[in-house]
Amino acid sequence: MNDERQHKSLWTVTTPPRDFPSLPGDLEVEVAIIGGGIAGLTAAWLLKRAGKKVAVLEMHRVLSGQTGQTTAHLTELLDTPYTTLLKDFGEKGAHLAASSSRAAIEQIASLVETLAIDCGFTRVPGYRYAETEAELRELLHEVSAARQAGLLATFTKEVPLPFPVKGALRVEDQAVFHPRQYLLALADRIPGDGCHLFENTKVVDIHDGTPCRVVTEGGTVTAQAVVEATTTPLNRVAMHTKLYPYRTYSVAAPLEGPLEPGQYYDSRDPYHYIRTQQVDGVPYVIVGGEDHKVGSEEDTTSCFAALEAYTRDRFPVRRITHRWSGQVIEPADGLPYIGRNVGSRHVYVATGFSGTGMTFGTLAGMVVSDLILGNENPYAALYDAGRVKPKAGARDFIQENAEVAFRFVADRLSKPDGHHLADVAPGEGKILEVDGRKVAVYREEDGTPHAVSPVCTHLGCHVHWNNAERSWDCPCHGGRFSPTGRVLNGPAVKDLPSRKLPVK
């Protein structure tokens, strides 16, 4: 694999970047949107189309966050099985989850057509397949539940994969596309008519009020409403108890043999997700999986190795050309949180999209824009950010938050990886104990060291080194930092403070 394509998604490499300015100073608009991914850009476009003056504020570059790291399935097959949704949300809730996903897919289809966006949007069938008898028994229950929720779902043994399976749930009329081509077309249409799109503009604080104030490093934006379209909301402690951050891995490879266009999901736990896409005339297979809790896997390069082996073993490919990873936020009860934030009057959140971020991100833009515009939205109540479902996901809620509490204490008591700079190899990061306190140390390939505090600036957990992505990752709430301590992923908004190393 070419070095420049290491850990860059197929979407990023095959689409040239845009250049939008950073916020030059104070600004007044009607709606401030934090985050330049699919949820933020969809909301911005829908609000602008309705006549609102909006400003999108992106911490890094537009589409450089989790939207740029997607595998871009547009699907009604959600991470939470319909058997579970029927039990936890009832038949009406499961039906709304299915119909809202369909509405999101059709929203994208409509914009692709009306704006004439060339993004490879293609309708395809989706398959969730079983490879063992145990998986098959569970799958048959899911077929029944999916049909009860309103999906065009059938059971079939005719699955167009190059390896044998026991059978599959087939659902019609799903879709694939090039997400970056689609979303850059929206981004290009946002500036103008009193609307703005700013890159390299980090938000450091939000004040709810009349008006709201969004404080950035470059100025303050005042607005009647604020949308937090970030992977996780900024410094919202109560919300974070219901959000669980995971890393997921993806690879792409040119197909050297036939594979019918479609979406495919195995029934493992964690599962693998597969789909096809034609990019620049080349047919690719894209495979994702090997998910784990952020900061819990020491050797993250092994996740890529396992995924590459899985891909080579099962599909007609000779070389892996792209590999990348992303952040998946799992919600406590199985569905995203979209709507007015808890305790807020004018601040809205969109988070917890699980593994279907393109579908739910689009839906979030639709729901939030309707709420701000005062339009009735049939899905708003289901995804209400303040909802409490005591039974749904209770075991996960207890387990995940107990793990956070454990990590908060255990990482402080754990032994350091070393005591001397010589213990850190070039290109590596380790936690050292220096003069009685822990320091996160990274050495560049040329040997230049960088030392920062290992204490996450969100809620004080200790970061862990991610050797595949070369980042410091927080296992508590998913904050990620560059080797030199710069914020890569929220919920943290402050960089890791620098630390001095003794001169030896």
TrEMBL record:
Pfam hit, one: Rieske
Domain Rieske: 416-504
Keywords: 2Fe-2S, Disulfide bond, Iron, Iron-sulfur, Metal-binding
Highest taxon above the source species: Bacteria
PROSITE patterns the UniProt entry points to: RIESKE
Gene Ontology CC entries for this record: cytoplasm; membrane
InterPro entries hit by this protein: FAD-dep_OxRdtase, FAD/NAD-bd_sf, Rieske_2Fe-2S, Rieske_2Fe-2S_sf, Rieske_Fe-S_prot_C, YhfW_C
Coiled coil: none
Gene Ontology molecular function, alphabetical: 2 iron, 2 sulfur cluster binding; metal ion binding
PANTHER family: RIESKE 2FE-2S IRON-SULFUR PROTEIN YHFW-RELATED, SARCOSINE DEHYDROGENASE-RELATED
Listed name of the protein: Rieske family iron-sulfur cluster-binding protein
Organism annotation: Corallococcus coralloides (strain ATCC 25202 / DSM 2259 / NBRC 100086 / M2)
Upper lineage: Bacteria, Pseudomonadati, Myxococcota, Myxococcia, Myxococcales
